[in-house]
Amino acid sequence: MVMVEVTTDWRGSQIRLAHGGWQPAGSLPAGAVRAYVADYPGGTAVAVTRTDGTTVALDAARLFGNNSVTPVTSMDMTADELLTTAADPRFQLP
User: Fold this and answer.
1) Which of 31, 33, 42, 83: CA 20 to 30 A from 10?
2) Helix (H) or strand (E) holding 5
3) pLDDT of amino acid 26
């Protein structure tokens, strides 16, 4: 499962609040002013704040949180791939 959140309030982001251990990303993807990664058992969450102030957070988990008990074997997505995806300018608020 991949959850996507687009917000102007990173502090109130549901993905941010769902996970602890956020660390600055090793490198910033193009168009980002800040980027964070949180690895947790069974998944990885990332957040990218872009130059326009929009933050896009992605949470990729092997287990669909509310109605499954058997996780997929792998998500096959690296943190860098998730960061690059979150930095995509096509994620916009209406």
Assistant:
1) 42
2) strand 2-7
3) 94
Q: Give the pairing of strands 23-24 and 32-40.
A: antiparallel
Q: What is the pTM of this model?
A: 0.87
Residue whose entry in the numeric block shows the structure tokens 């990885």? 44
Q: What is the per-residue DSSP string for 27-64?
A: SPPTTEEEEEEEEETTEEEEEEEETTS-EEEEEEESS-
Q: What's the first-to-final CA gap in the chain, in angstroms?
A: 24
| Cα–Cα distance, 77 to 74 (Å, whole number) | 8
Question: Closest Cα partner for 48 from 18, 16, 94, 2?
Answer: 16
Helix (H) or strand (E) holding 22: none
Query: Above 80 in pLDDT, residue 44?
Result: yes
